[in-house]
Request: fold
Amino acid sequence: MQDLYLTRRFAMLGAAASLGGCSALSSLNAAATPLDTYDLTPTPGSTSGRRSGRTLLVARADAPAGINTDRIMVKPSGAAIAYLPDARWTDELPSVVQSLLIRSIAGTGRMGYVGISEGGPVPDYALLTRIDSFQVDVAGTAVTARVDISLTLLRDRDQSVIKTRVFRNQVTAANDEPTAIVAAFQAILDRLLPEMADWVAAS
Reply:
């Protein structure tokens, strides 16, 4: 079976990146090339359960430099990092995740207000998010989307930690096309976002 296009493409990208001056050239080329833009949609948690007038502010997610971008990160092997050719998210990933969380939690209807930390009312709670993985792993002919997100819920008035939990999952994409890879990420979020929303709303 032939290697996937991604495997071949990222092997070439890795080799090119090792040449002096290629990083700057790659950046210029990337800036000049129009990229297809992909969106992810929220998935609310359960609308049943105790309702509260409490307010929640969701901070912009924290993420390593490699995924703190609007590009879709790929790890073809070992510690190497590349990005999916000709594809990007609608915004930098931490902002995308922040928006998904806000809409998924608010969609439960179980809290009085859910919004960004830069505005809104004085909060009862604050939600901190850390993205540890949001990437495509390539191993042979397998292309796997992987998500690993840690949530920490704080009581705002004294900044005390109420609870912390890690949410993670992975889904193998149907093929190496961007649409299939984004669909794999969406399948992960369709499972994780309701769990996250219910976990927060239950507090």
